[in-house]
């Protein structure tokens, strides 16, 4: 028995959606098209997933502990050679090298 939201309930939901839409997320959908093309094998989706988790839940440990300690150093953003091959494969048209730099800088600054 589905009943659509009305009045205050719909307004609260709309407000929550507006807040979530304003978050500065990477935009990565985790498709992994970039992974196989990356010469050093940076785990791009993992880095973006952990960063987005940090932003969504305001949880610095999500980024600092998991990114810096669980992703092997050779698969972290610092391994990026900025060749841009990943960006060419990205269906979201993300500037992956620039985003990787930002993710790593944020992780180290927390």
Describe the fold and architecture.
- By secondary structure, this protein is mostly helical.
- 54% of the residues lie in helices and 0% in strands.
- The protein contains five helices and no strands.
- It has helices at 7-21, 44-57, 60-70, 85-89, 96-109.
- Helix 2 (44-57) packs antiparallel against helix 3 and helix 2 crosses helix 5.
- The longest helix is centred in the first third of the chain and has 15 residues, at 7-21.
- The radius of gyration is 17 Å and the shape is elongated.
Overall average pLDDT: 95
The residue ranges in which pLDDT falls below 50 over 5 or more consecutive positions are: none
For the largest beta-sheet, the strand count, sense and barrel status come to: none
Share of residues in strands: under 5%
Query: What is the CA-atom radius of gyration, in angstroms?
Result: 17 Å
The count of β-strands is 0
Q: Assign an overall shape.
A: elongated
Elements, N to C (H/E): HHHHH
């Amino acid at each position: 028995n589905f009943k659509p939201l009305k009045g205050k309930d719909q307004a609260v939901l709309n407000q929550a959606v507006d807040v979530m839409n304003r978050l500065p997320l990477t935009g990565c959908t985790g498709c992994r098209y970039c992974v196989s093309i990356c010469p050093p094998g940076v785990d791009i989706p993992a880095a973006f997933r952990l960063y987005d988790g940090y932003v969504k839940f305001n949880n610095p440990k999500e980024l600092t502990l998991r990114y810096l300690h669980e992703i092997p150093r050779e698969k972290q953003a610092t391994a990026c050679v900025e060749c841009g091959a990943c960006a060419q494969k990205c269906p979201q048209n993300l500037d992956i090298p620039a985003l990787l730099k930002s993710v790593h800088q944020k992780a180290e600054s927390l």
